[in-house]
Design a protein that fits this description.
alpha+beta, four-stranded antiparallel β-sheet
């Protein structure tokens, strides 16, 4: 069923808002609320000051307040009154990811704010939930982002925030009706998204388990096993050998291309120290099949058999003796151990290559390596296809949620009159 529009519209006078329902008006944030920017970070104890918990930008998410890490600082008696959070205050991120908006619902008995967070107290003759949704919409659409001051990082000053335009329906009753509708619908959407994400996690675990069991157990589950003498490998088929990486691989030339040259789009895959291949490049010379290890920060491993490039923070290995794809799956199965045991150093950890060169690894005959790799290609491809479809559904629902909120709070569509209205979401 298609939602209806309001009967009459008028020009809002604000370009990005366009036409708005007759009777609605445009107000500045300062006209419907009182805004306080939090206290500058200060850990020096003054006489008669009090140590209290406070929120900063990282505690503010797009929907909820994240209390997994709450720090403390000292506040004077005056500051306790000024910066204390009260139920229904909107919290808006001032820096970093500007515009994240949450509602404070007394999650802690007592809490305050640091100067990377704005506290917005909505006037009593308005419904704070409606203005939460309109602020959320503006943040998601990038409106706050477009007006910030940028020095080293983005900052939305109080002076700019209080002059932002917010759309206001004519009565608190209508604001409440809109908020009630969005509470219900977004809750339904969020439940569907949560279920889809749980499915994605389950399929990822299934893929991981499949790889772990297959690379060290062969395809015959009843094969006789022996101890590999490698802690994280455990038992392997009796006829398999164990060898060192240096006897199976040779190193490829170190890249001269820094990771920063990677593009969002391009002709060829470009591998960096990231766990996932997300960058591209328009010129590539690497034609040899290889296994590519991340060398800085965190463990990552990739395989490529087409024209590509890799960055300076990668280490590439190849071989004419073995199935590279099999060993890609093997190293993928022990990625946790690689990160835990092979990444060391001061500052940013780096891959200690001897872990790969000198470490003992299973070495079945090449025919078995190839058979295992083909089997895993087939099975993991099916799982990846399912995961991709689930992720696309999450993306669709997330975009639908954003669009629904925006269209409702800006009056582009009208909230249904009946309370038992159900908006079905199908794929």
């Amino acid at each position: 069923m298609i939602l209806e529009k309001y009967d009459n519209y008028k020009d809002s006078g604000v370009e990005w808002l366009g036409d708005i329902p007759e009777g609605w008006d445009v107000k500045r944030v300062k006209d419907v609320s009182f805004v306080v920017l939090g206290k500058m970070l200060d850990n020096v104890k003054q006489e008669n000051n009090f140590l209290k918990p406070y929120l900063k930008s990282k505690n503010i998410t797009w929907q909820n307040v994240n209390l997994s890490s709450v720090e403390e600082m000292y506040f004077s008696s005056y500051e306790l009154k000024k910066y204390k959070l009260k139920y229904s205050d909107l919290l808006l991120s001032e820096g970093g990811e500007v515009g994240k908006t949450s509602v404070w619902k007394d999650e802690l008995d007592e809490c305050y704010i640091q100067n990377s967070v704005h506290k917005i107290t909505i006037n009593a003759n308005n419904d704070y939930r409606y203005f939460y949704y309109i602020s959320l919409s503006l943040g998601k659409r990038g409106y706050y982002d477009s007006i910030v001051n940028i020095v080293s990082i983005k900052h939305l000053t109080r002076e700019k925030l209080i002059c932002c335009f917010w759309l206001r329906p004519p009565t608190k009753q209508l604001q409440t009706k809109i908020a009630n509708f969005l509470d219900k619908k977004t809750s339904q959407i969020d439940s569907k998204i949560k279920l889809l994400k749980e499915k994605i996690t389950s399929y990822k675990e299934l893929k991981k388990s499949l790889i772990n069991e297959t690379v060290c157990r062969w395809l015959n589950k009843n094969v006789e096993l022996k101890d590999s003498n490698v802690e994280w490998v455990g038992k392997i088929p009796k006829e398999w050998n164990v060898d060192r990486g240096k006897n199976l691989f040779y190193e490829l030339e170190k890249s001269k291309i820094p990771a920063k040259e990677g593009l969002k789009k391009g002709e060829y895959k470009f591998f960096t120290s990231s766990k996932n291949q997300t960058k591209w490049i328009n010129q590539a010379n690497q034609k040899i099949k290889d296994i590519i290890f991340s060398t800085g920060g965190t463990a990552g491993v990739h395989y490529c058999d087409e024209l590509h490039e890799y960055s300076t923070d990668c280490w590439a290995l190849s071989s004419n003796k073995i199935s590279l794809k099999y060993y890609y799956y093997y190293y993928l199965s022990i990625l946790f151990e690689i990160h835990k045991l092979a990444f060391k150093g001061t500052g940013i950890n780096h891959l200690q290559k001897d872990f790969i060169k000198l470490g003992s690894i299973p070495n079945p005959i090449k025919q078995q390596q190839t058979a295992i790799a083909k089997y895993l290609d087939k099975k993991t491809s099916k799982i990846d296809s399912i995961i991709t479809k689930l992720k696309n559904q999450v993306t669709t629902l997330t975009e639908f949620r954003k669009t629904l909120i925006n269209d409702i709070v800006t009056g582009k569509i009208k909230v249904p009159e009946w309370t038992n209205y159900t908006y079905k979401i199908n794929f």
